[in-house]
Each structure stands twice: as C-alpha cells, then as structure tokens.
C-alpha cells in the first residue's frame, strides 16, 4: 500500500531549511509515481536562486541530509535534483523463506530504529549589533556531532528581521524600517528534541537622506538640478515630484527637473528623494521665477507702403518640438486679424511673420503684430507704423546729389553714404531737413573774396540754415572769407555748417578743418586802391616787410582815407556757425579758427564799431547752445589805426585806448546773449593779436552780457592789448 505523503509539509520543511526531516518523510513509505512527480516539482522550486538559476549548494545540502535509502534514488544532473522510483526485484518465495525474510527485516528495523539524540544546541553570533540592510551570519552547533537528527528550526521575535537557515547556521537581515535601537532575539531549536539557544541583537538604523537644489528658482522651459546626500546602505534612491508639468529624470544621487514652457511665473513644485523600501526621505521646493518670455523685433518701426517687412519672435527658452506659435496682425481702425485686413497682408512661418502693406494704407496708421504661445499662456505685441513712399526723404549718396539740394532747398534729404566734394562749393540758403544719418561730407572748400554791394558775406555748407541739419560730420573743410570791401561796411559770418543759423543743428561734428574770416582782403584791396603795398621803413630787430606780417611795428608812408568814417566792420566766426539765432544741440568742433578785423582809418568819434566775435561753436549767439564740445586753436585779432586827419608820416598803431572797437574770443561762443548750457568739454587754445581791447575768456567757454544765461559753467574776463 502506498505511503500517504504530506506534500505541503514536505515543501514547508524544505523552504525552512529542515532538510533532514523532509528527507526522513520520503523514507517512511513507498511513493506512487504521482507522488514522486510532486516531490520532484517541489525539489525543483526549492532549489532555485531568486534569478531562477540552480542553487547547487541547496541541492548538496538536501542530498547530504537524506537517508541512504533515499539518497541512493536521488540524481543531481543538468541543474536538477530528482527522486527516482524505488528498485524492487520480484520473485516467488516459499513459505519458510518468506518467514525467514520477515524475521530478518523485523530485526533490521529494530536495529535501524536505534538513533543518537540531540543533547545540546549552541548559537554563536560574535556580535551584538546589526545595521539595517546588512547581512549577518550566525553559527549554530548541535551536540553530539553524531546526533541522528540535527535539523534546527530558526525563529526571531522582530517581524522586520528575516532569518535564512544555512547548513551551518543562519543569515540575519534587518529591514530598512526597523527602528533604530530596537532589539531582535534569534532562536535556533531542534525540531525533534525541542532543545534551543538564543542570541539578542540591537538594530542600528542610521539611514538618512538630504536633498539640495543648485538654484531655488528656474524659468519656464528651463531645467533644475537636484542632488541627494545619503547614508543608504546600498538602497536605491527613488525620485518623485508633485507637479505634472515637470518632467523628472534621475541617475543615482542626481535628478534633473525639466519645467514645461507653460509654467506660470510664481508657481512652485517639490522634488522628493526617498530610500527605496523605507520612509526615509527629504524634499526641496523650487519656484518658477519667469514665465516664457517673447520678444518681437523688426528691422524698422515703419512699414513702407508697397514694400515687404518681417517681424521675428525670440523666446527666453527653447520651445519644445511641435510647439505652435500663433500670429495675428491688426490695422488701426479694423477689428479683424485676417490677412489682408486693413490693406496689410501677411503669412506666418514659425517664429517669423512676413507681411506687405498696400499703398491704400494711410500714412502713419498703426499696425499691431502679436505672437503668442497658447500652451505657455504667453504673448507679445509690436506696433509698427505705415509710411507712404511719397513722404520719405530723398536719398543722397553722391556729390552731385548733395549739390542738387540747391534746386529744392525746402525738401527732406538723408545721406546714405559718405560724400567727398571736389572743387569750390557755392553755399546757399537751406530751409528743409538734412539727415546726415551718421555719414561724413569731406573736402568742403569755400572761398569768398569778391566785393558785394550789400557788404554781407556768409560762408559754410549753407549761407543760412532755417531748417534742420542733424547727425552730419564735416571733415577736412577749408573755408576762407576775405572780401574786397575796402572803404565799405562789411559783415562776415562763417562756420562749417552755415554762416548763420536760424533753425536747428543737432548731433553734428566738424573735424580737421580750417576756417578763416577777415574783414577784408588787405593785399588785394590795397593794390586795387593804391597800386602797391606800404613797406616798413624802420623796424626794431632789423625786420622788414609788409605791414600785415608785422602789425606791431611802425611803418612809413602816406595813408589815404582808406575807410569811410561812417562804415563798420564786423566778423563772426564759429566752428558750427558764425551767428546762431536758433538752436545748436549736441554738436562738437575741433576746427582751427582765425578771425580778424583790420581798420586803417578808424576815428574814435565814429558812431560805428569795428567788432570781432570768434568761438569754438558759434562766434555770436542769441539762441541756444546745449551739450556741445570744442577743441582746436582759436585766433582772434582786432587791429585799428587812428590817423586823425587820415594821412601822415611815421604814424604807429594806437595801442592804448580805442573806445568803440572791441573783440570777443571764447571756447564755445565769443559773445552770447542766449543760453549756453550742459557743455561738457572746452579745451581750445586761445590766441589774441589785438591793437584794441580784446576780451578773451581763457579758462571758461564764452562771454555773456547781463542778458545771457549760464548753467554750470565758469568764465573769466580779461583785456589784452598790444
């Protein structure tokens, strides 16, 4: 009759490591083929590692614990431990022989029933503390060494600690959640005889984790790096976040949080690091300091009718692939953003809008272009203005184009290139707008020596400016005004930009230029009047020559009435303008200036005056000079000859007192009754050659009468003669 094997108890004994008791069960009776198959299935399941590979050590331990009758039927091959059928030999026996066999078997059973009992169990740990996550081996000794049944059953009183039996003892492992300082008692007990021994161990739980972020804030669409510092005992770090708009990736102790572009400024998210299988964790909270930023830009703030234009969008963060940028365009006076509405058509291509305005769009009409990213809740707008091409300034890029301005001096012009002039330039009055656009006009050459009936001489790029000149540089200019005005009243006004300014001059520069302004061309006028020049008969130092070379020396000869008693001579010379009655703003000049008034027949009772005004920006100013600078050399001269009757021999120049004639030389303005303010630099060299009172302002920038106004400026006044 087949033995009724408790297959469940057999499996439980194997899993608990009670190999000897399990094998003894197989020796208690004859098993059927079905039971043998069940036993082999259990042997297969109980001799596998966690990864499914064969556990050969377990197989060897099982075979070692099996009785000879069972072990002889077991086979370990191909990674399998199997139990075979019991081999029997069938034969007929006579009755006496059968009786003898039965007697022999009975005697054998009695002999085999004798066993050596377990007398003692001793557990030896060799330590009294275990750390969570670690594996610790405890040895067990069963005495006597030849005890028949040596199987031990292992138990512990702490559910967070596992005990795994081995052939010589057990392995103890404390789970990660076992409290620090808690104790566990591990007991080994003889299954057959109830003899046991125990050891009590203390659990050390030092697991910890601390996280920190590289920055406490991040922009929408950006990334944040978070790092953990832990005592993990080999446990994996598990990362998580509480925001579904944050994508978290990690590798070991470092995590990267990628923030969606739709994150709103001011929102926060938390990143948590936890040791796997434990409640040990730490968190950090990060703030979104900026939402998605959109900036729109265009090459110009104007849309020219009939020409194409573009508006580009740039973003504070790279947009994820597939992000849609939406564009709209609205023309003032319309409510629709449909392409073509209001006369402006457009197409959108990703981060760029391409458009064209028809000629039907009114001049100056506002056009609003908007780009938005709906997924980020972000948008930006740019306002452009339409311009009718008929109202655009005329572009000037050549000397011929600059000269053609005289044909329409009231028009609007803009330089599109630097221009070099050749030959003599004839100045003219200007009433329009000239935008230098940062370009330079070089080679300006003006020479005025003719005699005019009205006695007025004005020179520069323009004679008079009544319009606007801005952002223009004049370089290498040579301007000379010395008219044949002998015996006539004359007024000379000259500057690089204009002789007289009644309009606005702003942001202009004059460099590497020479401006000369005299009351008369002495050599030419004298020769025309008298046929020759007077010479110096006697001169200190043995010098000889014409009077205009050594004006301070005496000469001999007869002077005719070379100047009518009621005539006046006046020279106004500046780097920008000779006379300023308008506004000069933000200009600078480094031109060298030479201004002279010479009067041979001045009579102290003359009701008219001989005057010279010279300044780095303007010689004479009744308007405003604001934020200008000046450098270079300024020469101011005033020479008067008082002959009394108009003729005489051996007469010298009057150097002591002439009440009417005066000269004014200053760094920015020679004479000013308007406002001079905000000027930051004045480093001119003032030189005076005067034979009448010459007021020179060496440490300051200009002279002001009581009508003038000063702002943050200093000046000094002196009288130089001789």
Describe the model.
The protein is rod-shaped. 36% of the residues are buried. Strands 29, 32, 33, 37, 38, 42, 43, 47, 48, 52 and 56 form an eleven-stranded parallel β-sheet that branches. The protein has a nine-stranded parallel β-sheet with strand order 27-28-31-36-41-46-51-55-59. The chain has a seven-stranded parallel β-sheet with strand order 30-35-40-45-50-54-58, with no helix packed on it. It is built from eight helices and 60 strands. Helix 1 (7-15) runs antiparallel to helix 2 (19-26). It has 722 residues and is mostly beta strands. The protein starts with 6 loop residues before the first helix and ends with a strand.
Number of helices: 8
Report the oligomer: single chain
Structural class: mainly beta
Q: Give the end-to-end Cα distance, rounded to a whole number of Å.
A: 156 Å
- Let me know the average pLDDT: 78
Report the count of strand segments. 60
The share of residues in extended strands comes to 35-45%
Query: What low-confidence regions span 5 or more consecutive residues with pLDDT below 50?
Result: 88-93, 106-113, 529-566, 601-607, 641-660, 697-722
User: Helical proportion?
Assistant: 10-25%
Using only CA atoms, what is the Rg?
Answer: 57 Å
User: So what's the overall shape?
Assistant: rod-shaped
The major pleated sheet works out as:
11 strands, parallel
